[in-house]
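Treating backbone geometry as a discrete language has practical consequences that deserve illustration. Part of our work consisted of pairing the sequence of a single chain with a tokenised description of its backbone. What the numbers capture is local backbone geometry rather than side-chain detail. For completeness, the protein is quoted in full, as a sequence line and a line of structure tokens:
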Amino acid sequence: MDGYEVLELGPLDEWLTRGKQFVDKQMDTDFIGLSVNAMAPGGQSPFWHRHLVLEEIYLFLEGQGRMALDDEVIDVGWGTAVRVGQGVWRHLHALTDSPSELRWVCIRAGGQPLAELRGDSEKDAERPTPW
């Protein structure tokens, strides 16, 4: 049947073995991007990043961590949802004493098809982290 796709992501406890999985690269999406993510306690993003056109919503499912948004740092954990607009630098850190891996879903969207926005991300591997 046309018009939908099904992708089995597996149980949450297996997400860590994959770290980050871009669902939209495995499905035929046009306007919505989605990744499922897991980070071991004490882990952190490999770099800061921001989008100039896309906005993202992070929905945290498990664990405890901190999220840097430009110069501010917020606590995140199970049930936290964070919308990050265009131009905001972001970086994630799973607390060392988190009771489990930090697991989250990241949804990204913009006003254009995602294929036209492939170069929208900007990375900064030299920027120091706040923890």
Summary: Residues 15-18 form the longest helix (4 residues). The CA atoms of residues 36 and 105 lie 5 Å apart.
